Task: structure prediction
Amino acid sequence: MVGVNNFISLSKAGLYCIPGDFYLDPKRIVQTAVISHAHGDHAVPNNVNVYCTKGTRELMAMRYNASARSVFHLKEYREAFDIRGVKISFYPAGHILGSAQILLEYNSERYLYTGDFKLQDDNSCEAFEFVECDHLITETTFADPTYDHPEPIAEILSLNEFDQNVVIGAYAVGKAQRITKLLADHCPDKMVFVHNGVAAFHRVYEEHSRSLGEWMPYRRQEFLDSRNAVYILPPAHFARYSRNKTVLKIFATGWKRSYYSCDRILRISDHADWNDVLTLVRKTKTKQVYTVHGDGSHLIHHLKDSGIGIRKLA
Result:
């Protein structure tokens, strides 16, 4: 079993804090879960006790009707709390609404778990905040020198080149809200329609004082009768447009290629790219890096002569 200083180990259920007897973003139902954000690969429903931010709780409640079975312990950013002698605090991760880095302090050592994070500006959610630590556990989704994410404003402005209706495939939580806000700020002449499954999450954002600009629930005939309109919908529904020739089909992704048939991609990512990961390592002043959620091999090679220890956890 791979571990961090006999403090955190990796099990089938996920990252386990040994002295605190809790899990970070468990993959299975556990007694006590400390959750970084509401995406399904980090927040399974029905853990007995859940520690998270209010934004994460509200997005989970919208996604999982069964989440009411859990007892939620809601914490503000930078509010310290204790589980079995482990001091814990949340700091903004810049990923989606409510997303948090999790700082664990124990025996005078500071362990920072980033969860998913990004450094790019994003007015739809809380901005990333750097936190110094001794041990850094970071995602490495795009920790590859070939990934240098373009500025999102430049990407969204490219949509002004088209006067036909556009269908944008985007994940319902986080990505869809970011794109809606970017469209409102930089493509004001476009009417923005949103799939009903996405609109529910838009409303959660707006209830947390995150204005997304003007948008409306999708109405098929109104969209078809419009020119210069945009329809944002989840990937599964986007796939149904693969043979539709009447609209421009765009999929939003940080990857170089789309998993879905489309006319082009919108290179907007909610994860850190290569340079962001290097900036994180430098600004946290960490002594040791552990990689999760991605291929950490490029980072291991890059840091091998840096004096910073590094190893893969997952």
